[in-house]
Amino acid sequence: MTANPSVLLRLPADLQPDRLPKHVAVIMDGNGRWAKKQGIPRIMGHRRGVDTLKDILRCCKDWGIGALTAYAFSTENWGRPLEEVDFLMTLFERVLRQELREMMKENVRIQFVGNLNALPKSLQVEIERSMEETRHNTGIQFSVATNYGGRQEIIQACRAIATQVQQGLLQPHEINETLFAQHLYTADVCDPDLMIRTSGEMRISNFLLWQAAYAELYVTDTLWPDFNREAFHRALISYQKRDRRFGKV
């Protein structure tokens, strides 16, 4: 099915506004493979992937989805070739500088989740500036998982809670799911309802392990640079056909 592009600027008629996910998480996979298919360097795939992310963010805003979390760089991605890692860090920094004014105009609130202390200092400066300047925006919550790992996030939450117990500020019986979630990077955003992975890989790759406990998973063979509004539309159609019982009958 090929939808009219002009229609996709607003919520398609076959989607129910009251059944849209409140929070969508995306594993943006396939930039390198897309570039290889085009016969161009891998880094060009990452550039195209940024354009795709910008459009999907605007699409969420246009269609009334309140939060988008994108898996931009995992803790395991440091194992990629140094040239590619350096390019990605420079790309993140440049995009933040270039897009901040537009995010302010569109009322986007951006946050970065992950171990940010390991990132280049100049990138940390841009990250802090973008979060500070958009913190009072009331539109879509845009979270960028950078140097992020789900297991590492859970460990740091455990350490923080254990420290409070050790200091006598917290009793073990007071630890519950709500308190634990408050110690995660994503404490100020609801858990994702829908997790999308592009490129056909059937795994979540250490992404939002706690938060995705009841997320609906959608996997597509489409490579991330080709994941346009029409592809997002198909993902949402699939989501709205799901029967979300949360363990109940």
UniProtKB/TrEMBL annotation:
The active site is at residues 29, 77. Substrate binds at residues 30-34, 42, 46, 74-76, 78, 80, 197, 203-205. InterPro entries: UPP_synth-like, UPP_synth-like_CS, UPP_synth-like_sf. Gene3D superfamilies: Decaprenyl diphosphate synthase-like (3.40.1180.10). PROSITE patterns: UPP_SYNTHASE (PS01066). The keyword RNA-binding does not apply. GO terms for biological process: polyprenol biosynthetic process. Binds 2 magnesium ions per subunit. It comes from the Bacteria. Mg(2+) binds at residues 29, 216. Keywords: Magnesium, Metal-binding, Transferase. It holds the Pfam family Prenyltransf. GO terms for molecular function: ditrans,polycis-polyprenyl diphosphate synthase [(2E,6E)-farnesyl diphosphate specific] activity; magnesium ion binding. Its EC number is 2.5.1.-. PANTHER family: DEHYDRODOLICHYL DIPHOSPHATE SYNTHASE 2, DEHYDRODOLICHYL DIPHOSPHATE SYNTHASE FAMILY MEMBER. Belongs to the UPP synthase family. Homodimer. Catalyzes the condensation of isopentenyl diphosphate (IPP) with allylic pyrophosphates generating different type of terpenoids. This is Isoprenyl transferase. It comes from Drouetiella hepatica Uher 2000/2452.
